[in-house]
Amino acid sequence: MFDTISSTTFATVNALGIIGILVWHVQGKARPTARLIVQILFFASMTAVLVSAGILPHRVTTGEANGIPAYLGTSARILWWVHLAWATIGFVRLYIVLDRRPQEARLIQDLIVAGVYLGVALSITGFVFGAPIGTLVATSGVVAIILGLALQNTLGDVFSGIALTLGRPFTIGDWIQLADGTEGRIVQNDWRSTQLLTPANNIVVLPNSALAKVSLTNFTRPDETHLVTLFMRIAIDRQPFIVEAVLKAALDECQRIVQTPKPIVAFKGIDAIAIDVEFQFRVTSPANRTPARNEVIDVVSRHCAANGLKLAMPAHAYLIVPTTDGGRETAVVAPLSRALEHPLESA
Description:
Layout: H1 2-27, H2 32-52, H3 68-95, H4 102-128, H5 133-150, H6 152-167, E1 175-178, E2 183-189, E3 193-197, E4 203-207, H7 208-211, E5 216-218, E6 226-235, H8 240-253, E7 264-270, E8 274-283, H9 289-306, E9 318-325, E10 328-335, H10 336-341
Helix pairs in contact: 1-2, 1-3, 2-3, 3-4, 8-9
């Protein structure tokens, strides 16, 4: 009589488990809430059928029937564990969400799902098939140590990828620069490596373990505007305030630079020959630095020519040349190239 009841019970549970899998697939990934409801309903139904027949749903007990009922019981319990895992995973996928951080949420979900599958696999092995879990876990630990030593570089990349994902020093689309000068836009980031698209239109693949050890600058945060500096020497033929006004007017005409905040003309020094000028302006993106710099040089040179300002050579290109004027020893500043060509000119 028990064999008949258990066979009917197990057959019913197997049918519910298979129908639940089919309905779960029919719902599709686009309906996670419906999938979770289906998983919970079928899991609850399978549990109720087993418990009402006085059968433990999670493990095989001594004295149960052999033969076909035993096979039906094994498959029923495996399906029960599978539905439990899927119901748990459906809950995790639906409700473990980090606000505005989908990449981190997905990573945490994947880690929890991996733990659920591992726990269910061990439970089925120990409770359904009666295998010694302790021995299995100990053996798995030895195997894990061996694999860890063999795959330590790969595992280092994986765990570094997890750390980078949780720390969020950058996201896909950010423009970064590494300590060695390598820079580019992030085009791909997975658990093992990160890929940069450089200004030379090349892809640089960086292992996450190496990327986690170097300092980097994120040009995209807080926004993608980027500061560019440009140096110039203006001959001191005009007063500094006139030079400043001309250069500011030139920057105001440039179209490739950001006008808010306003570009700056900074005087860095002055000598008998020229004023050292530094232009400070922003561009909309690091990729626009070269076109913006070219435009600034062109516009500034035209404004200087139109307003009588001359460019001066670098300070190291001049030489103090001693001269004699009416019996007095004086000195004049001459271009270095001229002094070298005519060393006795002042004699």
